[in-house]
Design goal:
- The structure holds two protein chains of two kinds.
- Chain A is mostly helical.
- Chain A contains 15 helices and four strands.
- In chain A, a hairpin with a 2-residue loop joins strand 2 and strand 3.
- The longest helix of chain A has 27 residues.
- By secondary structure, chain B is of the alpha/beta class.
- Chain B has eight helices and twelve strands.
- The chains are: A mainly alpha, B alpha/beta.
- Bound molecules: adenosine-5'-diphosphate (ADP) and magnesium ion (MG).
Amino acid sequence: MTTQNQAAGQAPVAGAAIARKRPPKTRMDKLLGRPESGVIIAAIMVWVFFATFAPHFFSARVTANVLLAGASLGIIAVGVATLMIAGQFDLSVGSVYGLSAALVVLMVNHGVPGWAALPIIMVFGVVLGTINGLLVTRLEIHSLIITLGALMFYRGVLLAITEGFPIRLKIPDPFMSMLDFEAFGIPGPFFWFIGFAAIFAYVLTRTRFGNWLFATGGSPEAARSMGVPANRVQITAFAVASMLACVAGYVSVARFSSVDALRGTGMELEVVLAVVVGGASLNGGYGSIIGAALGVLIIGMIQQGLILMGISVYWYQAGIGLLLIVAAIVNQYVRKRSIS
Amino acid sequence: MTKAILELSNVSKSFGRVHSLRGVNLTVRPGEVLGLLGDNGAGKSTLIKVLAGVHQPTSGDILWDGVKTNLDSPRVAMMRGISVVYQDLGIIPLLSIWRNFFLGREDEVSRKLPFHYQLRHSHMREVARGALQNLGIHIDDVDLTVAKLSGGERQSIAIARAVHFQSKVLILDEPTAALSLKETAKVLAYVREARNQGVAVVLITHNIAHAYEVCDRFTVLFHGSVAETADRESVTEQQLANLINTGTREQRRIAV
Ligand SMILES: Nc1ncnc2c1ncn2[C@@H]1O[C@H](COP(=O)(O)OP(=O)(O)O)[C@@H](O)[C@H]1O
Ligand SMILES: [Mg+2]
């Protein structure tokens, strides 16, 4: 039999590979072996840069601004990072964020107490995300298409119900005012962001569900063959992304008491940017919540830093774009290092 | 003779107009190694994917312990105690070795906390390392991503995994195809060991020498149908080769 000879002929090569001794890992390998390695370095560099060149970068007010700017984006980024690791995208988060904020304002204005509006809007988010997830997994339509449709649809609904005008809370809600605190000079919304980042960093690295998320994003077919309910995992990730977008909407109402119909426009791409800067792979199966959170902070620092340096806001976009490209190059290097 | 644990009765599977399996009957018994033989494209992989719950039969029945059953998903099959080491999938390149090792089986090594299973990282690393060593695979750093391993190493991890989670039925799709002679001998020894412990093993291969060494019985597939099922005592290696090539025990060309 030729097949037998083939197998015998191949054997020694494979055998050598099994016995192959690997050089011990250096400290550098360990340091660079994590998805967030690139973004940690980038965060330090951006911070040092503005600390050196931007006046008052250390002032409490500026720090608070950086953290505040990051809060909504950060809460949403946690969900989008989770979803991207599971192998899917959600372009509708910006619209869902705006719509949920408007719904919270309308609910409270119609007498729903603020503490009740929070779970209601979270369930609303879970429902929207589950619809996205079902459409994507059941019909096998790419998530970019489904959520692009959702982006337009929910933005349209928001414009229609507000008729394009800003809406605001008629009377302050005691529960929501309570959430709008400031501790140690850190604005309240930032604590929500840190809270969710910590919860999901834990879920992704320390739980069975986290293992399933990475496996599903890495290879849905293989994950399924090992008994992972890959569709359910992805639907759950969609639900998480939309739910966190709604929480961000709620938190923004607690902070600003008002919404305009364009709230969250363009945010979907800013979030993707933060998540990718944070080391996640667009192909799924690779990434980190900590990285995404740092990506968000870098964006906030660039925003505030450029303002402090008196540089035209037009340069902000250019700076962010440059950041994305540099980060992508660094992350590519880190990823290659960890898998080959 | 021991009672069958898993049986296929007149099972067919078509992918559109490709008929990969036609009226297949198959019996898997505890404490026995069944060799599933056949040339490339004969339908071996399709058959085990039916056994593993990946594919549903187009027609025919699956019997578990004599009772008609459905294997609706890989998870259902896994819960029944069917472990599969795949040729083409079954390992996630971007995950570390130890995470791969426990994928889909995390509950056994996790803390059951409210709302979730918490992975016991260091315990899982330790168990994975031990299980690999049992099979003679010396990889100290189980934090390596599988993408860094050779094909042979990946296969070994999948086998070590299946052996570790002692299943009722263990299915191996071409397990020795990428292994050295030394590792092959070890794997075949493991297959025997599993059988001696009462596991029903299905060994898919087109290497007759390997099959003849460990299998108690053979089922030969030819163009999606069973050419013959025979005990080892009643068939020679040459006859098996003929069955694989021509669908009969005789040595003749198919084309005439
Ligand atoms: N998912 C699929 N879709 C279509 N055809 C398939 C699929 N899987 C297997 N086949 C076909 O079924 C036949 C048997 O394949 P396979 O079971 O992989 O054979 P073996 O493992 O014995 O080499 C082949 O003709 C193959 O092309
Ligand atoms: Mg095959």
